[in-house]
TrEMBL record, chain A:
Gene transcribed to yield this protein: cydB
Name of the protein described by the UniProt record: Cytochrome d ubiquinol oxidase subunit II
Compartmental location: Cell membrane
Species annotation: Methylocella silvestris
Top-level taxon in the UniProt lineage: Bacteria
A GO CC term attached to the entry: cytochrome complex
Main location (coarse class): membrane
Recorded GO MF terms: electron transfer activity; oxidoreductase activity, acting on diphenols and related substances as donors, oxygen as acceptor
Membrane topology annotation: Multi-pass membrane protein
Transmembrane segments: 6-37, 82-101, 113-135, 155-174, 194-212, 232-251, 258-279, 299-319
TrEMBL record, chain B:
GO MF term list: electron transfer activity; heme binding; metal ion binding; oxidoreductase activity, acting on diphenols and related substances as donors, oxygen as acceptor
Name this polypeptide is given: Cytochrome ubiquinol oxidase subunit I
GO biological process terms, semicolon-separated: aerobic electron transport chain
Keyword vocabulary terms for this entry: Cell membrane, Electron transport, Heme, Iron, Membrane, Metal-binding, Transmembrane, Transmembrane helix, Transport
Lineage: Bacteria, Pseudomonadati, Pseudomonadota, Alphaproteobacteria, Hyphomicrobiales
Length: 335, 474
């Protein structure tokens, strides 16, 4: 048949995960920035900027998980069992901060501090272990059968710990630039102050990962530095530099949304860099998308529902961002 | 940990997380339909009490829905983290079914839930009622998908095994597998019953505290009618479900009955009311039995026989000690529900439904009984289908990931601590909301612009489920 189901599903899942990284990225960033903002009213305001949308952001993660099981059961089984501990800790972090988010608004003043800390710690935990899981995936696994057979702590490598820290910095940038766009006054000024060192740190992180990845992973090295691929990838670092300097430039001006848009571009570049490095594999170093796909009867059946419902979710998402556009003031009570 | 194997720990972890999860969707299913009935009655009769009850229960629905979403996040990943061999083997069937469940749930949340919770002043009454109906329908469709997946694991058909993996060849057969209609009916009705008992207990609690308002009486009366009608229906469905299980999973029935072997000759077998099935001795000890009743219930014949547990190979026997008791807890609670319904009819007949303190206390105590019965029932069906994860096709021990007992103990500890704090707070919050009770929201406007607690105007609130709940302190 003419439709290439595994590729379509790979694109859907990659899209879903990208939506997740971009959208949950900035609201995790809010929690990451909590320790740098002391005033409780400012913290309320920070949470209010994402209050209308954060739960929708996490739906993409569930969709990614279910889609992966439907289309690539081997990948789902293998990656999830290999990354058991980091993923459980990530989920624990996400639940923790999600519930803290809601209960913090309902809590009486004596209990509020507990949910404030829970929100910040949950955000750090979720982000760090997400980054660790990502780094471990780039490291690759030796796939022998459908379940992981290595050690429970093999995911702890210098590289994966570094990507954990790296992702925390990246989400902090998304969070701070989001707040520059969504807030005003003292809180916005504080965010502009913070965004500068965060951008520089992230640039250093990207540089280190970009050097570390190809040299520690021969397959990626081959992909990056072989002609003609090299020509296609050459613009990526140039664009990364341009975006980073763009952010630094606009932080000095009175522009509000530009830093956020450029931060999204940075994340997108990083994400596409990852995609380029893995393609056509789904688990490095040697499990390809096609070999990992489930039976066509399963992919086709599930595709009908996805094609019907994903556009509706996208429309609704766009609508809710539109409804809650504009600045959020300190003291505004909606939640 | 405590001499448990990695397989035991993986099963405990799944059982623990799914037990917490199932409570919320069950109440979601029941409350969604209840809200649809309330709104229909409000539009039909224009009796304000129905609208006030809708507003009251929709807040509890919102919190409950949010808890279900959060606890469901873990479930979507656990099949891969803990049961990777099973997922790789059967993902071709269970994956698309789970994907449809997730898509249905999001579709529901994305569109109609927002309108139902926040749209009272934004859309007309007809459209709002339609949204409520769609939410109720959505919860049922969502349950259908996940029960199709579970039922397929219990009574698999419509597939082939190619290269060591399940390949679906006929989706209709996969979905409409033999145990699916019974399980769907049993679970849906269980959700309705559990919700009716919760609503009834809330009403009784307020009546006992002297809040004898039209709204409280109405919700209590509706709940008692529901229990009266639905409890016997559920007993009949359960009986049919049991006969279906006898046909497809005879070992499960033998374990539930604590029935080890038939007497020589074509004699009927007793119903064991109580006893202690001893797996090692293959004997049910200390038993109290009624002769021939087992034959009558399960074969509808005086001298009918079923296979005893000893007739199955030792490796294929489920744990009779556990399912014997979980089943009896479920049935015992069901009988108490039947009693509650009949008692309510008697009180109603005497014109004393809202005043008998003894009866009202009984209704309060029965509040959690529906939820407990659901848990006991699921424990029975899931432990009773062991040692299989896909019945007759794959053993549970073949489906589990290769994690160490250490890793599993660590994560189980994290889950237990976190779940008790998180969902304990959630349940506490819901109970506090229930304690506030349904308020009179006035004659003219369908809803006030300021909600019950006097915080933010509704039109400026985001349409997240929990923001529909008032900000009472926790």
């Amino acid at each position: 048949m003419g439709i290439d189901l595994p590729i379509i599903w790979a694109v859907i899942i990659a899209f879903g995960l990208m939506m997740y990284v971009v959208m949950d990225g900035f609201d995790l960033g809010i929690g990451i920035l909590f320790p740098f903002v002391k005033d409780d009213r400012d913290r309320d305001c920070m949470m209010n900027t994402v209050a209308p949308v954060w739960d929708g952001n996490e739906t993409w993660l569930v969709l990614g998980g279910a889609g992966l099981l439907a289309a690539f059961p081997i990948v789902y089984s293998f990656v999830l069992s290999a990354l058991y501990l980091p993923l459980v800790l990530m989920l624990a972090g996400l639940i923790w901060r999600g519930v803290a988010f809601e209960f913090r608004f309902k809590a009486d003043p004596d209990h509020k501090w507990f949910w404030t800390h829970a929100f910040a710690w949950g955000s750090y935990t979720a982000t760090f272990f997400q980054g660790v899981a990502l780094g471990s995936l780039i490291n690759g696994f030796k796939v022998e059968g459908p379940s992981y057979t290595g050690g429970a702590f093999d995911w702890i490598t210098p590289f994966s710990l570094f990507t954990g820290v790296g992702l925390t910095v990246a989400y902090a940038l998304l969070g701070s630039t989001w707040l520059i766009m969504k807030t005003e006054g003292d809180l916005q000024r504080r965010m502009i102050e913070l965004a500068r060192p965060i951008t520089l740190t992230l640039l250093a992180v990207i540089a280190i990962v970009s050097i570390w990845t190809p040299f520690a992973h021969p397959a990626v090295f081959k992909r990056w530095f072989t002609l003609p691929d090299l020509f296609f990838f050459a613009p990526v670092p140039v664009l990364v530099l341009a975006a980073a300097f763009g952010i630094l430039h606009f932080l000095k001006r009175d522009t509000h949304s530009a830093p956020f848009v450029l931060a999204l571009l940075l994340l997108f570049l990083g994400y596409s860099g990852l995609g380029i490095s893995l393609w056509p594999n789904i688990i490095p170093p040697d499990l390809s998308i096609r070999a990992a796909a489930g039976p066509p009867q399963s992919l086709g059946f599930a595709l009908v529902g996805a094609l019907f419902i994903v556009p509706i979710i996208l429309t609704y998402t766009a609508w809710s961002y539109y409804v809650f556009r504009g600045k959020v003031k300190v003291g505004d009570g909606y939640h | 940990m405590l001499g448990l194997s990695a397989l035991d720990l993986a099963r405990i972890q799944f059982g623990f997380t799914v037990s917490f999860h199932i409570i919320f969707p069950a109440i979601t299913i029941g409350l969604a339909s209840y809200l649809a009935v309330l709104e229909g009655l409000w539009l039909w009769t224009k009796d304000r009490a129905y609208r006030d009850l809708y507003r009251f229960w929709s807040q509890i629905f919102a919190v409950n829905f949010a808890m279900g979403v959060v606890s469901g996040l873990v479930m979507a990943y656990q099949f891969g983290t803990n049961w990777s061999y099973f997922s790789a083997f059967a993902g071709g069937v269970t994956g698309p079914l789970l994907a449809y469940e997730v898509l249905t749930a999001f579709f529901l949340e994305a569109g109609f839930l927002g309108v139902a919770l926040f749209g009272w002043n934004r859309v007309g009454p007809g459209l709002h009622f339609f949204a409520t109906l769609m939410v109720a329908l959505g919860t049922l469709v969502s349950a259908t998908w996940i029960l199709a997946s579970n039922s397929w694991m219990q009574t698999p058909q419509g597939f082939e095994i190619i290269d060591g993996r399940v390949v679906p060849v006929d989706w209709l057969k996969v979905i409409f597998n033999p145990s699916f209609p019974y399980r769907l009916a049993h679970m849906t009705v269980a959700a309705y019953l559990a919700t009716a008992l919760l609503v009834g207990a809330s009403g009784a609690w307020h009546l006992l505290r002297g809040e004898n308002t039209a709204r409280v009486r109405k919700m209590f009366s509706m709940a008692m009618w529901m229990v009266l009608i639905v409890a016997p229906i559920q007993i009949e469905i359960g009986d049919q479900h049991g006969l279906n299980t006898l046909q497809y999973q005879p070992a499960k029935i033998a374990a539930i009955e604590g029935h080890w072997r038939n007497e020589p000759g074509a004699k009927g077998f007793p119903l064991i009311l109580f006893g202690w099935p001893n797996m090692a001795k293959q004997e049910t000890e200390y038993k109290l039995e009624v002769p021939h009743l087992g034959s009558l219930i399960l074969t509808h014949e005086w001298d009918g026989q079923i296979r005893g547990l000893s007739e199955f190979p030792a490796a294929d026997r489920p744990d009779s000690t556990v399912v014997f008791w979980t089943f009896r807890i479920m049935v015992g609670l069901g009988m108490l529900m039947l009693l509650l319904g009949l008692w309510s009819l008697w009180q109603r007949f005497r014109g004393d439904l809202y005043d008998s303190r003894l009866f009202l206390r009984f209704a309060v105590v029965m509040g959690p009984s529906g939820t407990l019965a659901i848990l006991a029932g699921w424990l029975t069906t899931e432990i009773g289908r062991q040692p299989w994860v896909v019945y007759g096709v794959m053993r549970t021990s073949e489906g589990v990931s290769n994690h160490s007992a250490l890793a599993l103990s660590l994560t189980l500890g994290v889950f237990i601590v976190m779940y008790f704090i998180v969902f304990g707070t959630g349940l506490y919050y819901m109970l506090k909301l229930i304690a506030v009770g349904p308020q009179d929201l006035g004659p003219d406007r369908p809803t006030p612009d300021i909600d019950l607690s006097g915080n933010t105007p509704l039109h400026e609130r985001p349409s997240r489920p929990l923001s529909a709940a008032p900000d009472i302190s926790i």
